[in-house]
Write a structure and sequence with these properties.
six-stranded mixed β-sheet, about 25% helix, globular, about 210 residues
């Protein structure tokens, strides 16, 4: 059975998701923002092996603990959308200089494209290119558990900012309408900030579309 642990970590309260298979004890983490000791502690408490780190985009508040996790488990592969790869190594673009005053540089092991599938924890995860918050933002859709990790693209009742480098509001809204709102309505949306929601609820109540 697949289990998901949510932690809200870092200076801007980013949702970090640790996803693991109870049988295989394999795990991946989505957007490790900060507090690597907390995340590593959870892995060790449950005897989990970290297999991958999935980044929805390359902003500082989604990548801050990546290097510590890689030091802890070098075999874990870091995934990011191919268009956002450059941002990982540019503290100006990833906003770490402006917001933290401490440049963060991260390296990806693998880049992904729209509709690419990652097979992990005994399930397939579809990479959906959802640009707008950043030009390379990726939403990760796990059909087997009816869940999409939307990063800072779609929030409960709202949408992500589009005023950072490579952001674009029209592109963001188009991504949500054409890429995410076409998912089944009972799909759980696990966003980068704030509360969990569903595709059906957002189609009905999100203020940007109603």
């Amino acid at each position: 059975m697949i289990q998901i642990i949510q932690n809200t970590l870092g200076s801007v309260m980013t949702n970090v998701y640790t996803v693991y298979n109870e049988e295989s004890k394999e795990a991946f983490i989505v957007d490790p923002s900060a507090s690597s000791k907390v995340l590593i502690g959870q892995l060790e408490k449950r005897g989990l092996k970290l297999k991958a780190i999935l980044l929805t985009h390359a902003h500082f508040d989604h990548i801050g603990a990546v290097n510590d996790l890689k030091s802890y488990c070098p075999e874990a592969k870091v995934y990011v959308g191919e268009i956002d790869e450059e941002m990982l190594s540019d503290p100006r673009l990833n906003l770490s200089e402006a917001f933290e005053g401490n440049p963060v540089i991260v390296r990806a092991d693998k880049t992904v494209r729209d509709n690419e599938v990652i097979s992990i924890l005994g399930m397939d995860i579809k990479c959906i290119h959802t640009p707008g918050h950043t030009s390379g933002s990726i939403s990760y859709y796990a059909e087997d558990i009816k869940t999409v990790f939307s990063g800072d693209t779609l929030f409960s009742g709202s949408v992500g900012r589009s005023d950072f480098p490579t952001g674009n509001e029209n592109t963001l809204l188009k991504s949500i309408e054409e890429k995410l709102f076409t998912l089944p309505e009972d799909t759980s949306v696990l966003p980068g900030h704030d509360s969990l929601t569903t595709i059906g609820r957002e189609k009905k109540y999100n203020m940007f579309f109603n």
